[in-house]
Amino acid sequence: MAIPHETTVKRALANLLRDELAYCRSLLEFGIGLPDSAVINQRRLKADTVTVVMGLYTKACLSYRAIIHLCEVGLDRSAAPVNRSLFETLLNLTFLLRRRVSLRRFGFSTGKKKPTKTPVNLFGRRLDTEFRTDLYCAFCTLRDQKMVGQWPITPGLKRTGKDAHKRLSALPQPHIAAVGADWEKALAKANTCTGLSVADYAASLGREFYMLYRSVYAFDSQSVHQSDSLAYLDIDDAATNISPRWHTSPEQVRTTLQMASLMFVGCMRELNMRLRFGRDVADRISGFATALNGWSKAE
Question: Pick from 295, 222, 225: which is nearest to 260 by CA?
């Protein structure tokens, strides 16, 4: 069963956003075909790094496809959590693929007009590619342990939880051992694989990432945290007539597609910067970025 006016909205968007949707489909097709195993195998990256990077990039492709699919029928607000996830995927890909990375705390939560830039205590380690991969994998393992660790004390999950926790605990944990006790402690209570807040993580990677955090991530987080209920209602000035707002507008759908495309292009750019698939690929990515900047607003 479709929601009200879904077919009409889909037809209208196919016409009004014809060029934008065509761009998105072309970008996705190019992105899916981007990885070249022959090239990747020549770059001498550790197997764990290649595995994690390709997994994240595949996730980026699937997220971008889901966003296009939702926007095609005017469900851009339902795409918000996926857009937020795509941003986090971009952060992790960049963190793993950049040749050099510095981590800092900026003190955004203090409210100061000029944030500080305090280097993160690395506990004597270097943020080379291999160690960053260990950090990411250790973080994922610790998150799994924390989740499964709650099952044995959850009514209805106790028996299953005990078995799952036992099996998980018996698995080798080389990445946790590799990062060391200090980093393990920092990651255990963190929301990112760097031990930083998402804001500091983004700012550490560059100004453009922090701008995306403040725009895309912060806005889309309203949907994730359920603080946007009024966005789903049409209310008159007297607040006497309230009705469901099933769809937004072509402009808002366009903006969602544009932001998702910007992040997906970023994923491709980071992949190509490290793996170097060739000049033709670099030119295509640059062309997609330039075309995206040229998107105009609907009349």
Answer: 295
